[in-house]
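Module 6 notes. Inverse folding takes a fixed backbone as the condition and produces residue identities as the prediction. Think of it as a translation problem where the source language is geometry and the target language is the twenty amino acids. Below is one complete input and output pair. Work through it position by position during the lab.
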């Protein structure tokens, strides 16, 4: 039976879900946050040590300004309202990405959240915000060339340097692509693509994937 340490999520389909419900893309993003909370709760129940969510990619800046502002407002509201509840559940929050591009207020809030939850041990929740894997690799190479360039030294300069690589990647929304997410770390990850939009993703869907994962023979290049 395969050991499970880390599950990553590409939460695709929020905007399309909102439009499908005739309530707009932002409504879909609002519902998407509720799904994140449910999946974190399910992950704790299922004793999964680490989960990572692709919240905002470096390419998402191409979206309409109103939608971008709403997304960051959601993040701001969520952590302002839930920070005590997050900590009381033993959740450790990590932020992965180029947060220097975010507003000062949001950067301060995210850093405060990481600081307050740094010693929590129930589960690690990584949020990839303004994250792009190509840039992560490029910046890591630039830093590593000052030392001896090898894989071990390179990986020390990644955002996810202290974490095991994901065992599973789950992408909702129907598209079968990685969208510049953890390209290095997903080299031997088991990939699961669902047609369901993210707000429709349920614990039962999650459990079904975990059962399939446990039956997979993972070779890592061996036979």
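Target side of the pair, the amino acids:
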């Amino acid at each position: 039976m395969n050991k499970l340490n880390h599950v990553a999520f590409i939460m695709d389909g929020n905007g399309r879900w909102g439009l499908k419900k005739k309530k707009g893309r932002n409504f879909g993003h609002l519902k998407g946050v509720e799904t994140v909370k449910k999946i974190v709760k399910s992950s704790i129940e299922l004793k999964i040590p680490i989960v990572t969510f692709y919240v905002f990619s470096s390419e998402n800046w191409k979206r309409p300004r109103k939608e971008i502002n709403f997304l960051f407002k959601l993040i701001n509201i969520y952590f302002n309202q839930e920070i005590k509840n997050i900590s009381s559940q033993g959740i450790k929050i990590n932020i992965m990405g180029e947060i220097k591009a975010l507003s000062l207020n949001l950067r301060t809030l995210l850093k405060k959240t990481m600081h307050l939850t740094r010693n929590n041990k129930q589960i690690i929740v990584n949020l990839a915000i303004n994250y792009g894997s190509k840039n992560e690799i490029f910046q890591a190479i630039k830093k590593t060339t000052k030392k001896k360039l090898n894989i071990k030294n390179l990986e020390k300069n990644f955002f996810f340097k202290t974490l095991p690589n994901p065992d599973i990647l789950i992408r909702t929304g129907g598209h079968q692509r990685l969208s510049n997410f953890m390209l290095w770390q997903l080299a031997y990850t088991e990939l699961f693509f669902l047609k369901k939009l993210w707000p429709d993703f349920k614990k039962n869907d999650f459990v079904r994937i975990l059962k399939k994962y446990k039956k997979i023979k993972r070779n890592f290049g061996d036979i």
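Reference fact for the lab report: The chain has seven helices and six strands.
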